[in-house]
Design brief:
The chain is an alpha+beta fold and about 575 residues long. It is built from 18 helices and 28 strands. The structure holds zinc ion (2 copies). One zinc ion binds next to α1.
Length: about 575
C-alpha cells in the first residue's frame, strides 16, 4: 500500500474519532445541562465542534467540567450502536426530548433512512461512522467557546459552539496543542499591532489596510526588491488606472463571471467598475499599437492594486482583505514560446520565494472548471503546456481537476512556513480566452496577423497576504534586510550623544535604517525594548567606542558580538538579504 493511501485512511480514522468525540461532548453537556438543545456537531480539519442552544452562557472556565464528564463516558466504554428507524418514530423520539433542531433536521430527511447512533444514555441523529466504543477516545481537549447561528443564518437562533480536538495518542494531542499556542503567539494581527506595522480602521470600513510607517517601510523594501528583479528579467513596468467603464468589464467577461466581487458605481450617469484584476488594463496597452513577432514575449509588470467585494464575514487580518496589491504581470507571447516562458516563470518564482527564506514548496496544477470561457482545444493545449513545464523542471505536483480559473488552467505555488502550514502565493495562468475577446494579435514572419497567447502570473501574490505570512513565519523577527529598523544606537550617557548621532548619520548614508535611542532610560531598559521591537542590532556606544570610531554590537538572537569599526558593521548588514545578481 502506498504512503498516500495509508495517510488518507489514517485521516479518515481521525475523522471518525473526532466525530465520536463530538457525540461524547454533547452527551456530557446534556448530563450537566439537562435543558440543552443540540444542533449539529461535525468533525473538522483539526478537531470537532458541537452547536448548542443553552440558556446559560458558557465560558472557557466551564470546559474542564465538561471534559471531566466526557472522561466518565469514556471510562464507561459504551459501545456506539446504530439503528435505522422511520421518520415518524424519529420525530416522536426527538419531540419527546423537545430537541427542536433535530426535529427540523428530521423533517428534511427521507422516510425510512433515518439513522441513529446510541452510546449509553445518549442517542443522536447521525449517519456515522463511529469508533466501536467510547473507550477509544483516549486523547482529547476542549479548546474554546464561540457564537454560531443555526444553519449559519444570522436571522435564526444564535447558538453556542464548543470547539475541541482529539487524537489517537497523548503525544499527537500535545504536539497539536503546542502548534495552536505557537500559532497564537505568531498571529500577524497581534504582532502587527505590537510592532506598529499596520491597522484596520473602523471608520474606513472592513478589509482595507492602513500601513503605518514601519509597515510601509517593510513594504517599500519588498517593492524595491521586486521591481529590481523584474527589470533584470526583462519585464517592462506599466501603471494602469483603478476605474474603468463597465463596457470594458463586459468585454473582458468580468461583469458576467465576476460581478459579485466587483465594486460598481456611477459617474455622470455612466456605469463604472473598480478593477478586481489588472489584466484588462495591460491588454489595452498591448493593443494600443501593432506588435511584431520580434517583440514577443512582451512582459508587462505592475504592482497593481485591486479591490474585491469579499463578504465582511470572511475577511481575516491581512490574509483576506478587500483591497490588495499584486506583483502582477501579463505576458503576451507566441504559442511556441509557451513552455519555455512558463519554465522561466517557475525559476523566477522559486528564486524570489527563496530570497524571503522559504524553501519548501507545494505545486498544484488546476484544470478546466465546469464554468469556463474559450474553446476546448485551447484549454487542452494550455493544460499540456503547464504540465510540460513542470515535468521538464522535474517539479513534483498534484493535479486539482476542475480547479482552474474561468479563463484558463493554472499552476499554483504554495509555500510552507515555520509551523508547517501551507500558504498560497504565486500563480501562473494560461489564457487563450482574453486574447480572443480583445482580438490580441501580432504580425508574424508571413506578414499576417496571428493570435497571441497570454499568461497571467504573480510570484508573491497579494502583498498584504504575503506580509501577513512573513510576520507569522518569522514570529515578527523579520530578517535584517526586511526589518523596518535594522539597528538602534544606544548611547551610554549624554556625553556621547553627539557621537551616537554621528554614527546614525554615517549608517543612514550607507542606506541602513537606524535610530538613536535618546530616552532617559538605563541601557538595560533600552536593550530590552529593542529586543521587544525585534530590532536586529543594538549598537552600544560609550567613550571608548567614540575614541575608536567603533560600536559595541549586540544581535537580537546571537547576543554580544563585541566592538567593531562602524565600516565593518555596515558591511555585515549589507551582506544580509538579496545580493545584486546577474541574470543571463
Ligand atoms: Zn454523529
Ligand atoms: Zn491577470
Amino acid at each position: 500500500m502506498s504512503h498516500t493511501s495509508d495517510h488518507k485512511e489514517h485521516a479518515n480514522d481521525l475523522w471518525t474519532l473526532r466525530h465520536s468525540a463530538a457525540h461524547i461532548m454533547a452527551q456530557a453537556v446534556r448530563r450537566l445541562y439537562p435543558d440543552v438543545k443540540l444542533a449539529i456537531g461535525p468533525p473538522i480539519d483539526d478537531g470537532f465542534y458541537y452547536d448548542l442552544d443553552l440558556p446559560a452562557r458558557l465560558t472557557e472556565e466551564d470546559l474542564p467540567k465538561i471534559e471531566a464528564e466526557m472522561a466518565k463516558i469514556v471510562d464507561a466504554n459504551f459501545p456506539f450502536e446504530r439503528r435505522m428507524i422511520s421518520k415518524d418514530d424519529a420525530l416522536k423520539l426527538f419531540r419527546g426530548y423537545d430537541e427542536v433542531y433535530k426535529i427540523e433536521l428530521i423533517e428534511g430527511l427521507t422516510d425510512g433512512q433515518i439513522s441513529l447512533y446510541t452510546d449509553g444514555d445518549f442517542t443522536d441523529l447521525c449517519e456515522g461512522p463511529h469508533v466501536s466504543s467510547t473507550g477509544q477516545l483516549k486523547a482529547f481537549k476542549l479548546l474554546s467557546v464561540a457564537g454560531a447561528y443555526w444553519r449559519g443564518d444570522e436571522k435564526r437562533q444564535q447558538l453556542q459552539r464548543i470547539y475541541g480536538t482529539a487524537y489517537f495518542g497523548k503525544q499527537e494531542l500535545d504536539e497539536h496543542l503546542t502548534r495552536v499556542e505557537e500559532a497564537k503567539r505568531r498571529d500577524h494581527r497581534k504582532l502587527g499591532k505590537e510592532l506598529g506595522l499596520f491597522s484596520f480602521e473602523e471608520l474606513a470600513g472592513p478589509g482595507v489596510v492602513f500601513y503605518h510607517p514601519k509597515g510601509a517601510t517593510v513594504r517599500g523594501v519588498i517593492e524595491d526588491y521586486v521591481r529590481r528583479v523584474h527589470r533584470a528579467r526583462r519585464y517592462q513596468p506599466v501603471v494602469t488606472p483603478h476605474i474603468f467603464r463597465t463596457d470594458m468589464w463586459k468585454k473582458s467577461g468580468h461583469l458576467e463571471h465576476y460581478k459579485d466581487y466587483m465594486f460598481l458605481f456611477e459617474a455622470e450617469e455612466q456605469p463604472y467598475g473598480i478593477k478586481p484584476m489588472n489584466c484588462p488594463g495591460h491588454i489595452l496597452i498591448f493593443n494600443s499599437t501593432i506588435r511584431s513577432y520580434r517583440d514577443l514575449p512582451i512582459r508587462f509588470f505592475e504592482l497593481g492594486t485591486v479591490y474585491r467585494n469579499e463578504k465582511s464575514g470572511v475577511l481575516h487580518g491581512l490574509l483576506r482583505v478587500r483591497g490588495f496589491t499584486q506583483d502582477d504581470a501579463h505576458i503576451f507571447l507566441r504559442e511556441d514560446q509557451l513552455v519555455d516562458e512558463i519554465r522561466e516563470i517557475l525559476d523566477f518564482a522559486f528564486e524570489v520565494l527563496k530570497t524571503f527564506g522559504f524553501d519548501k514548496f507545494e505545486v498544484e496544477l488546476s484544470t478546466r472548471p465546469e464554468h469556463y470561457i474559450g474553446n476546448l482545444e485551447n484549454w487542452n493545449h494550455a493544460e499540456q503546456a503547464l504540465r510540460a513545464a513542470l515535468e521538464a523542471k522535474q517539479i513534483p505536483f498534484v493535479v486539482h481537476e476542475g480547479g482552474g480559473a474561468f479563463y484558463g488552467p493554472k499552476i499554483d505555488l504554495r509555500i510552507q512556513d515555520a509551523l508547517g502550514r501551507s500558504w498560497q502565493c504565486g500563480t501562473v495562468q494560461c489564457d487563450f480566452a482574453l486574447p480572443e475577446r480583445f482580438d490580441l494579435n501580432y504580425v508574424g514572419t508571413d506578414g499576417k496577423e496571428h493570435r497571441v497567447v497570454m499568461l497571467h502570473r504573480a510570484l508573491l501574490g497579494s502583498f498584504e497576504r504575503f506580509f501577513g505570512m512573513l510576520i507569522e513565519h518569522y514570529a515578527g523577527a523579520l530578517p535584517t534586510w526586511l526589518s523596518p529598523v535594522q539597528a538602534v544606537v544606544i548611547p551610554l550617557n549624554d556625553r556621547v550623544l553627539d557621537y551616537a548621532r554621528a554614527v546614525e548619520t554615517q549608517l543612514r548614508g550607507s542606506d541602513i535604517r537606524v535610530e538613536v535611542d535618546e530616552r532617559n532610560e538605563k541601557m538595560q531598559a533600552k536593550i530590552r525594548d529593542a529586543q521587544r521591537a525585534q530590532i536586529p542590532y543594538m549598537l552600544v556606544v560609550g567613550e571608548r567606542e567614540a575614541a575608536q570610531q567603533a560600536v559595541a554590537v549586540r544581535h537580537r538572537r546571537e547576543g554580544d558580538l563585541g566592538p567593531m569599526p562602524v565600516a565593518a558593521f555596515v558591511e555585515r548588514v549589507q551582506q544580509d538579504g538579496p545580493q545584486p545578481q546577474l541574470v543571463s
